[in-house]
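Same chain as my last thread, 489 residues:
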Amino acid sequence: MVQFPKVIQGGMGVGVSNWRLAQAVSRLGQLGVVSGTALDSLFVRRLVDGDPGGHMRRGLDAFPFPAIARRVWQEYFVPGGKAANAPYPLLPMHQRFAPRKLIELCMVSNFVEVFLAREGHNNPVGVNYLEKVQMPHLFSIYGAMLAGVGYVLMGAGIPLHIPAILDALVAHRPAEYRLQVTGAAADFDSQMRFDPAEFAEGPLPILERPKFLAIISSNTLASTMLRRASGRVDGFVVEGATAGGHNAPPRGKLQLTSEGEPIYGERDRVSIPEMRDLGVPFWLAGGYGSPEKLREALDQGAAGIQVGTAFALSQESGLRTDFKSMLLERAISGTGKVMTDPLASPTGFPFKVAQLEGTSSEPEIYRDRRRVCDLGYLREPCLTADGKIAYRCAAEPVENYVAKGGNAEETAGRKCLCNALLANVGHAQVRENGAVEPPLITLGDDLNTVTQFLAPGETSYSAGRVVEILLGVQPSRSEPLLHQAAAIS
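reply #2:
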């Protein structure tokens, strides 16, 4: 009988759910998850910063195709790290037909993150992707599978095609992914194709198919996934509107509170009895980060819970330490505030934004930032008048967006999440005028409840403590294991 984890650590942001955090959680028998979003850019910036601790090099040395690993290292590693006021190099932006070096970089970066998360233990590790960030999927998933990833989690869209991709890549066969192209007819050719054999060096390793968990927010989507997905769906993470990151929009006509937040109602609640009737494991997410909520979930027939905010503020997460300290101070005083912003994300989905000075949650910081789109992970493929695919982002310069067929009204209030999320984890881009990209932090509505994980007199806590408290384990029982994990990290 398959033993599923009771606690899944959320795959948050760009580099917040990093290999250290996932390793700490998985070592304790729960499911640690790395974020796969923008890993190629994050990996390059770690190398450009001199690879502190040598961790990226250790992962590269284990990559099964050494010539590719060598090329990546030689191109991007900067001994001692770049100057503080020097910009990071920019990668080619993802398109339907990606250059080989970008494909290699996706494979390598996903491999290294999963490899490091799996060091020192034999428990499964997961990787989380956003379905809406479609163009890197094929190569990223293959890189993670080369490292032995145990679970692939995907939400923020309808990931119908992912099971067939896993089935193909586990056998090193060519895989395809159909891009969603705005304005294109149903028969428009938008397939992306990836053949692992074109990148192999010598015999290919034997792989295991990871379990696939779809992140959903409605019973309809869950049943659609089981009925129409291209292969086996192993379970669901049921994410409510209080969870951090992107939220599904409310059903029906959008209504806002006096503070400008979307109003969710009964139609937006998932029926747990209907989830049980589907006959596949499911985990509840969004406000479930407490031992009481875990017991409630288990009593309702869930396999467990997914927890994000508590882990995002733990010592092992990639979020900048000063941001964690400020947010924990607010939680202790009960003044932490997270707003569901209906405009911030260029995707059009509501996005949770922690209100914190020095970040783009402040209107004046948002206004002072010059609009630029140079990472492009959230760009939307769209069809031009001459039948070609263009790529646009509602957070790019307005005139550029309009020139690609977008409406100027859609750009109002949009924020560059790609650059902001990299700034959150200490890799902010430096602009020509010396300006530094501002951060924008996302957390769940339960920010102020994380104080339950602080020991008396302490101002920070470990991921291990979160696991212990959620499971009702006495801290002393797992203390040696936590010390061992810290030594390896």
